[in-house]
Structures are given as structure tokens and as C-alpha cells.
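Posting for a labmate who doesn't have an account.
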Amino acid sequence: MSEFPLQSQDAKFDEDGFEKVKTDLQQVATSLGDETVIHLSGPRVMIPRAGVVNIFLTSDTTTSSSSTAYHVITCLRSGQDETGISFNTNTNELTAYEELYGGQVKASRGSVISVDISVTGSPSPTLSNDNFTIRCELAEES
């Protein structure tokens, strides 16, 4: 598949392991070329090269909100609410394992796409970022 050995093949789930995965993704991204669409997924997604990212979210849980208790799901880019992508379960309930298209953002190399969950009301619903998988399609910046 590649000209370089994978550093993260036996990586542990720690800071050193994350750095090995990050290095492998960056090497793969540069070997694919800018015209290739790269598909990335996980609970957090590190962007290996600058480009335009289409963001999709999938929850493993169905929400059941009321007018007094609901979630606001926001996509973050490198920990900041800069994506403009947000879902409110008060007006848009989530269905388990149904992919939602969030939108498109520009991201630089090394950006991390993640999810933040805010809960409003009582009793507090139990949805958290652990319930989400993020899928990104990274394409060349146009």
C-alpha cells in the first residue's frame, strides 16, 4: 500500500500512540495527492492535510426530548465552535444509527474535528460525545 512503514500498527491508546496515528495519517495524506477524497471516521477526527471537510454525525442512541429537556450537539474544530454546525434535539430528534449531514468547513492540517454536547433542562438526558461517531470526507480546497 505505501512506501513507508506504519508507525501506529501496535500503538497504545495514549499520547504517544495518538502521535503515531497522526504521523501515519499525515504520511498517507501526502502520498494520496490533493485530488483524492479521504474518508476519516472516529469519535474525534484529525485532519491530515488542509482542505474542505464534509462532516457527518451518527449517534448510537435515539433521543427523546421535551420542550424542557433537550440536547444541543455542536461540531468543534480544534476545540473551538467555529464550524457553524449544530443540531438541536428540541426541534430535530436523533434516530439511532442514522447519519446526519452537518455541513462543510475548511480545515487546516492538524485540525481535530470533535463533538460537544450541551444539555438543557431537567431531568438531564444521558446523551454524551461517547454516543457519536464522526465521519469526514476531506477533499482538495477549491
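Reply:
Got it, the C-alpha cells are right above this. The first strand starts at residue 38 and ends at 42.
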